[in-house]
């Protein structure tokens, strides 16, 4: 007989971690995002840390890729990406609320993970394919004619400096003389659009220095805010930012 037992805690935790991929790529609806965030808040600490780690890694990876100059992709790129997606089983739509019946989002999670692997490999191949060496992304941001710079003093002490290029769609962020986060807490960087929900730009277990800044995606109207969050980070800010920079 088929197994009709309800999903256990381990199944729910595993599924929640899988959903970090479409969540990080903003490939879920607002209601689905709200439910996922509620589940993360109620999940075991280790599950929340795993979820937050995937979200952070995906967004940081996509941030680096977005800062690469647009170049024509090799002819096989589309075929490789589509082949990755075809490997995931298709399923008919069902509500997110049905825990045991979520094939669309679980398919999307698998597809998103595969797509990231494919695109990262392609991006590296394209970036290394030219005859001329490509400067590091942080250096390229500084070289842009539209790059703007802002520095803010943080309420914790120390300062945060950002260099942002709307043309590249990327920014660098670095810190000086900022004390370590309290025990059991971490700094987390956020991209804050004018009329939208903050998006994590990274959980900072170590604060990037000016000699090795963090690179993140950036839109012209975004603010960059820093908050102190529970260890492992949060899907959304839970405290008042200790500082923010704006280029508006």
UniProtKB/TrEMBL annotation:
Anti-sigma-K factor RskA N-terminal domain segment(s): 16-62
Task: Give the InterPro entries listed for this entry.
Answer: Anti-sigma-K/W_factor (IPR051474), Anti_sigma_zinc_sf (IPR041916), RskA_C (IPR018764), RskA_N (IPR053877)
GO cellular component terms given for this protein: plasma membrane
Any Pfam family the entry gives:
RskA_C
**Bilayer topology:** Single-pass membrane protein
- Keyword terms: Cell membrane, Membrane, Transcription, Transcription regulation, Transmembrane, Transmembrane helix
For this chain, one GO molecular function annotation is: sigma factor antagonist activity
Localization in the cell: Cell membrane
Q: What is this protein called?
A: Regulator of SigK
Q: Specify the domain of life of the species encoding this protein.
A: Bacteria
Q: Which species is listed as the source?
A: Nocardia mexicana
List membrane-spanning regions: 107-126
Q: Where is this region: Disordered?
A: 229-248
* Primary localization class, coarse: membrane
Query: Which residue range or ranges hold the Anti-sigma K factor RskA C-terminal domain?
Result: 108-242
What are the GO BP annotations of this UniProt entry?
regulation of translation
């Amino acid at each position: 007989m088929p197994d009709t037992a309800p999903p256990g805690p381990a199944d729910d935790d595993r599924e929640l971690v899988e959903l970090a991929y479409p969540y990080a790529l903003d490939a879920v609806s607002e209601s689905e995002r709200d439910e996922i965030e509620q589940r993360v808040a109620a999940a075991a600490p280790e599950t929340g840390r795993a979820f937050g780690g995937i979200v952070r890694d995906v967004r940081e990876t996509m941030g680096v890729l977005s800062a690469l100059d647009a170049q024509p992709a090799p002819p096989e790129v589309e075929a490789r990406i589509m082949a990755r997606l075809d490997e995931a089983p298709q399923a008919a739509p069902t509500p997110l609320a049905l825990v045991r019946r979520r094939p669309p989002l679980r398919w999307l999670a698998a597809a998103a993970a595969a797509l990231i692997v494919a695109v990262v490999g392609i991006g590296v191949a394209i970036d290394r394919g030219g005859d001329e060496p490509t400067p590091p992304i942080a250096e390229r941001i500084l070289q842009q004619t539209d790059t703007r710079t802002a520095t803010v003093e943080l309420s914790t002490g120390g300062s945060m400096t950002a260099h942002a290029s709307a043309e590249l769609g990327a920014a660098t962020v670095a810190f000086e003389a900022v004390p370590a986060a309290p025990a059991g807490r971490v700094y987390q960087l956020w991209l804050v659009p004018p009329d939208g929900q903050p998006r994590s730009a990274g959980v900072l277990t170590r604060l990037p220095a000016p000699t090795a800044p963090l690179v993140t995606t950036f839109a012209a109207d975004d603010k960059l805010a820093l908050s102190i969050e529970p260890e492992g980070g949060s899907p959304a800010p839970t405290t008042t930012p200790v500082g923010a920079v704006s280029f508006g």
